[in-house]
Known about the structure:
The structure is a homotetramer. Helix content of chain A is 39%, strand content 18%. Chain A is built from 14 helices and 14 strands. The first copy, chain A, has helices at residues 13-18, 27-36, 38-51, 59-71, 132-153, 172-178, 231-245, 284-305, 324-337, 344-354, 383-389, 409-415, 418-440, 442-456; strands spanning 75-78, 87-93, 97-102, 107-108, 126-127, 157-163, 187-194, 202-203, 206-215, 254-261, 272-281, 308-317, 375-376, 392-398. In chain A, the strands form 4 sheets. A 6-stranded mixed beta sheet of chain A has the order 1-2-6-3-7-14, with helices on both faces. In chain A, strand 1 and strand 2 (87-93) form a beta hairpin. Chains in contact: A-B, A-C, A-D, B-C, B-D, C-D. The interface between A and C is large, with 42 and 42 residues.
Amino acid sequence: MPKRALMHVLPLLALTVAVPSAAQMSKSEVASFLDEREERLTDIAMRIWDLAEVGYLEEESSALLAGELEAHGFTVEWGVAGIPTAFVATYGSGSPVIGVLGEFDALPGINQAAVPYRQPIEGKIAGHACGHHLYGTASSAAAIGAAEWLKRTGSPGTIRLYGTPAEEGGSAKVYMVRAGLFDDVDVVLAWHASGVNSASPGSNLAVKSAKFRFSGVSAHAASAPEQGRSALDGVEAMNFMVNLMREHVPQETRLHYVITYGGAAPNVVPDFSEVYYYVRHPDPEVVRSIFERVVAASAGAAEGTGTSVEYEVIGGAYSRLPIVALQEVVYENLTSVGGVFYDDQELAFAEALKGTLPPNPSVASAATIQPFEHRMTYASSDAGDVSWKVPAGTLSAATWIPGTAAHSWQAIAAGGTTIGVKGMMVAAKTLALTAVDLFSDPARVATIRAEFEKSRGADFRYDPLIGDRDPPLDYRARSPMP
Amino acid sequence: MPKRALMHVLPLLALTVAVPSAAQMSKSEVASFLDEREERLTDIAMRIWDLAEVGYLEEESSALLAGELEAHGFTVEWGVAGIPTAFVATYGSGSPVIGVLGEFDALPGINQAAVPYRQPIEGKIAGHACGHHLYGTASSAAAIGAAEWLKRTGSPGTIRLYGTPAEEGGSAKVYMVRAGLFDDVDVVLAWHASGVNSASPGSNLAVKSAKFRFSGVSAHAASAPEQGRSALDGVEAMNFMVNLMREHVPQETRLHYVITYGGAAPNVVPDFSEVYYYVRHPDPEVVRSIFERVVAASAGAAEGTGTSVEYEVIGGAYSRLPIVALQEVVYENLTSVGGVFYDDQELAFAEALKGTLPPNPSVASAATIQPFEHRMTYASSDAGDVSWKVPAGTLSAATWIPGTAAHSWQAIAAGGTTIGVKGMMVAAKTLALTAVDLFSDPARVATIRAEFEKSRGADFRYDPLIGDRDPPLDYRARSPMP
Amino acid sequence: MPKRALMHVLPLLALTVAVPSAAQMSKSEVASFLDEREERLTDIAMRIWDLAEVGYLEEESSALLAGELEAHGFTVEWGVAGIPTAFVATYGSGSPVIGVLGEFDALPGINQAAVPYRQPIEGKIAGHACGHHLYGTASSAAAIGAAEWLKRTGSPGTIRLYGTPAEEGGSAKVYMVRAGLFDDVDVVLAWHASGVNSASPGSNLAVKSAKFRFSGVSAHAASAPEQGRSALDGVEAMNFMVNLMREHVPQETRLHYVITYGGAAPNVVPDFSEVYYYVRHPDPEVVRSIFERVVAASAGAAEGTGTSVEYEVIGGAYSRLPIVALQEVVYENLTSVGGVFYDDQELAFAEALKGTLPPNPSVASAATIQPFEHRMTYASSDAGDVSWKVPAGTLSAATWIPGTAAHSWQAIAAGGTTIGVKGMMVAAKTLALTAVDLFSDPARVATIRAEFEKSRGADFRYDPLIGDRDPPLDYRARSPMP
Amino acid sequence: MPKRALMHVLPLLALTVAVPSAAQMSKSEVASFLDEREERLTDIAMRIWDLAEVGYLEEESSALLAGELEAHGFTVEWGVAGIPTAFVATYGSGSPVIGVLGEFDALPGINQAAVPYRQPIEGKIAGHACGHHLYGTASSAAAIGAAEWLKRTGSPGTIRLYGTPAEEGGSAKVYMVRAGLFDDVDVVLAWHASGVNSASPGSNLAVKSAKFRFSGVSAHAASAPEQGRSALDGVEAMNFMVNLMREHVPQETRLHYVITYGGAAPNVVPDFSEVYYYVRHPDPEVVRSIFERVVAASAGAAEGTGTSVEYEVIGGAYSRLPIVALQEVVYENLTSVGGVFYDDQELAFAEALKGTLPPNPSVASAATIQPFEHRMTYASSDAGDVSWKVPAGTLSAATWIPGTAAHSWQAIAAGGTTIGVKGMMVAAKTLALTAVDLFSDPARVATIRAEFEKSRGADFRYDPLIGDRDPPLDYRARSPMP
Lengths: 482, 482, 482, 482
């Protein structure tokens, strides 16, 4: 098993050749600047991995990252968009303004030690199964690297790190977009933990989610059931009609639900029941219209079962708007930085973990970069909204053993080792170098923005899928009970 | 197998002793008057059995009965309550006015030869599985017998035979009650074909039925299902919610349905679908409120599936209001007339048929009279409405082999033989003698009406469950297709 | 609001007249013996009310009662039937052996202060909404009273208090019957908290309950739903088929369920889901057969949804076998003890609480005794099994404001005041005096046992509905999560 | 409205240039040969349009086509594959063997006069809503044209017309493939009526269909529902589980059903019910596996509802295997033949009908040829199986107004006018000229077959989705009643 102290980083030989030298700091020097800080970055990432704070409750995790940015000269604004754990850290001034997204929330209901076999950690109720401890740390590192370049070169330009909480269902970025926090940004950069290294242009699914809460009339289920109206009947009737609806939506639609409260005791007719729905489709407008049909199903279910229903929109996100010209810059830098190369200990760990995963893709593929081609992902992210406000570039880095699924224990396990850290460093350097390219080449930014305006369309008007609701700051703390 | 020509009727020995002599015609003579006409009555009943005309289409059957009544001095009014095959035949004048109900419609979807084993008749699409050929004939005979008594004795009084079509789902009596045809009647008498002889007071279930018709949007089910809205989805969602509702209604409730049109071809999203519902409960007001909940289920189903729905009330009937004082008169006369005694041929037929039936009650029980006690029947009849307008007495006569279920092929079989005829004669004589008793004893009529007023309650207001719809004269002819 | 210190007990004037004096201790003296100990009994009952320990976790509550019995010379056997909190406390020797049942578990999910308006107690997760704090205390008091009579009179006879945990879903008495703990008992006595005073013979519903646990295959609900098999689909399909089944069971059947685990997050296809079912009917054998059909529905649902299912029987109880000859003894003593009379403070409390309850029956009815007549209750109790092993007599005492439903906050509220204590004293004295009558009159015991043998039938073989499972000692502690 | 006598055919100018002259008969002469026979072909097509014979009952329609082929020297074999209305008509000898498919069955449940507004024909229960009257006629004409070329040139080669009945649900071609009728064929040609002219390579959906028949226990729905087991419950439970399954199949899957028998009368628990299912997906093996899951849903439904179920596979077809090299030949000939040009009367008809159709594509597009590109169609055809046995080329011809859907009344209307005939002539000439090309150029046939072998794969083993069932010769005549 790899020890954090034993990490070795591959020399960035390719970079010394591929990257043109900047005024007073070459891209190779930017990469080295970050490599030299790997131990410090590792400490931060592993501390956040240990904390595993869930959405909107990431007080320590966000403070760790913001503190590091302040230590490197960033100015931090806290509590943006009405969210206590959201922040914006800024360095530099003038154009262009480059934003970097940084997430840090953990996933509840799953946890795991950093071992290549299933071993939950006693008493821990959440885990970094989506690698956000690496995400926030790498992004902050990239911002620090870009700030260093601005400082040393004296170039005009502003670098911002957006500390974005609660990606897992809390949709913080949407509230941040709605609050206008990205209005003056030229380009946004992001990345994600993965089992592959990739910077292809791609899209995903828009999503709108809501909790439907049915109210009925309680009664003794054996002695007076005729006096009761079961709220669970309402939930089941709604689900029935949504399941029928599956035939009558475009095939790329995704509708899924869990029953979050299905009654307390069989001998009492439940007067409360709750079901939690996601509606997804590549097109946000289709999501909007199908969501209305789901609402109609809930209303019809209430009418037909003698119950009543209300719903609360929980989250909502646009699908990603891919910008090919921007992904090309990211791709160039990713290929120059290169993939993840395991040392012997890491290889042993990876191969042990591979025994619990599908055989393809191979462990060796962590060292490679995926071909540049359009990719569709059937998943959603609140980064989607950002991509309709600002041209947004992204990449994946192989922080996990190839073949690992997001939200799996294997993701937590690898993310807690030097394997995760190596992937994190790939991301940090790729993002920093991309920012340097954009600061250095205004024409490229202009091209990117032109493609963005064209892809978005002249008629586009941003209307967030979460509507006018406030951030659900207690969504991880609430019980479904009435 | 019994031949119609070989019928032997038991001498009414009991009657010659038990019945007090009336002015110019004793009850025993009334019974004999009917016995002497048995061959003629048999011809009529068997002709109707052969015709097997279904609801509202009973042109020949009703004409046969009305013709016989006219031949005995009755005045016939046709087309009452807007129903071509409904009639009222009247004899005599003054009080009291005694009505007798006579049904004559057959049941579609079942037929059978008069043999003690299953043998459908080729090409025949309906059969007298509920014995209405005997019902109408015996009731007409009873009215003729009572008229003869009125004529010979010169007593004041009016006897009426109500020719009531379409009992099987057409609810003709309800329209006849609604039209005021029973408003001036003092007492109504009725009977029904059965496997037992009984004149106990009893009640049954009120019912309201309707066809719910869903409309959707048709589309190619493979190439454009997202453009379709399935009307069958509407039906299934409605059914789902009604099935949930079963838990939340009083346990004596009955809810049942069939899907009468569920789409034409799988490769087309159905734009039409129909489901046919019955709602029943002992209390008509409970039926009314549960029916509204079923309507709400249909509306909720339409809303939740993107379809629309309309419903047509098909039938509706009150539960029977039993009048003990009236049943006592019927019971006295039934016990004096006696049960059904098989001759050797009939016994052989009965025992052969018994092989296809439950062993209990025994074949011999056809000769006995059931004890007088309150009985609840979980079935419905449009005679229910009559019983809330006029005190209504009824009996069952053993026209079928004991153990035979209504609507079975065994009922058709026995009803086509002398066994059915013997049961019919029991009913004809019991009804005629009961009418004579009521004509003879005004105090008894007063007692009956006093109980009726008290049982019905001072606040009672008749509000038919069929609402204001017209008789569904084409309900047996229509296709569910739009 | 009544204070515990202000309780006034009505003088037992009726008893001094009505009860014939026994050898060295009259029934009146037995009643007085208990009245003198009311303050002590109040302390015990209110301590258990405060503890509100849930099923199989009633360590302190059971110890309080057993300690009181030991202090009065009873020998206590702990851990009977493999249940740590179950005990049998015995006094005396020889025949007859009279058992008294005592319950003491609280109901989770509900709590309330002893005030006549809704006021949950912060941090308390359970409450005595079924009055078992009074039940156990009154029964123990009755046993102590009967023991005192045995001691003073020197009569032969054994009195036993059965400390029976976990009535609310844990079915402890069934395990205790199965373990043979009632094999040598002649008569068992019991009671229950109520809004009325009654000792009529009556029956209730047999019940069998189980948790059905479906397992599926987890998958990302958006990116790979076709690889998933939803365990919640299994639950919903099972429920669907059970809801269809409602039409095809005898109308006295009760089927009810809650979904105790319906998935964790909508974006993951649930690989686990749980539904908790009760099946009830007056006849245990009908329960058994319908339960098998419910199991078939679960198996069919698993087959049809590509999931698997296992079930765990949670509880099971026979319906009560009423013994009229025994109820007559209880009824005689209840009428002599009399009902519950409120003082001014109690009346004010009762009337305030009545504002939250149906107007009928009136507050004043707490002072009356219900007429002696057969009563059917659509509820279940694990005391049912006892009643098929031993003749079991029971009564209800008005510990709650008339009109209060079991398992309501109003029941907790009244049960925490002197109103509850007064009802408890009615029960304690009635049970003690009934035991004295049985000890005094062997012929009456013989009559009771003869009726019992006849009612139960010669062919009866006890086969507990819980089968061979062990007591679910952790049923209140477990999470439904796999 | 266009009269049949007024048809004008565009001169085939393009052909005179593009087609190389053959030995004694140029391709231009082959086209002219067909054009000269247009009136005769029109008579045949319109006679079949009038007959509108449904699947496996096309006695006159098939005889008309076979008679015409015999009149041109073809030898006809009747009753192939055990199907009375299927035939194979052969001309010539030796290699290559070219087959042409000809359909002729009408669609039940829809009919229409040849007018540009909705006007059903009284008493007609079927119509050529899929243009098979044109299909069979054009294919026969093409075979006759190719035979003429073989005769005049004396070239080796065999031309066969396959008279394939019951395409609409009867899957006759599958039985014909299974019977080995295509084993010695080198290339098969086909076409279809459409609103466009196209010869692109494309695929569609494999399909497997079945009727699931549930049996239960009948009972009076009001008086003894607990004795009944509703077969309709089985159907609804199966449907419920299939609707849940929609979430867990690949998104290209299509599952659709209609309830073909849902009970006779609400007052009887149905002991029979039938549901008719289609399962479709591009991959026949996926269809096979999902069909098994649908069968599991039926079995689970039966188990869970106390019913039993059997199923009968009704149809099954592979998806089309496209052969690019063959489509290129068809495309070349289609572009040389050209599209459909309306005269003034036809234009007026087309524009009137367009008022009932979507505005795009335009009426004018009937004159154009669609670009050559891969196309996916979400529909199925029994020609799919042929395409896995023999390289099969196909085209669409604009027999309908652009924008017309198959199975619509607009398709019947246009198909009954000269518009349909003009499209038919496009198809007839394109197929004939393609056959001539293949007879003329063995190398091209070899290329086609090489691609076919490669696309099909070395491991391919044909296993028809209909299994070993016999042709459902009575599938249009049967009632679902048991």
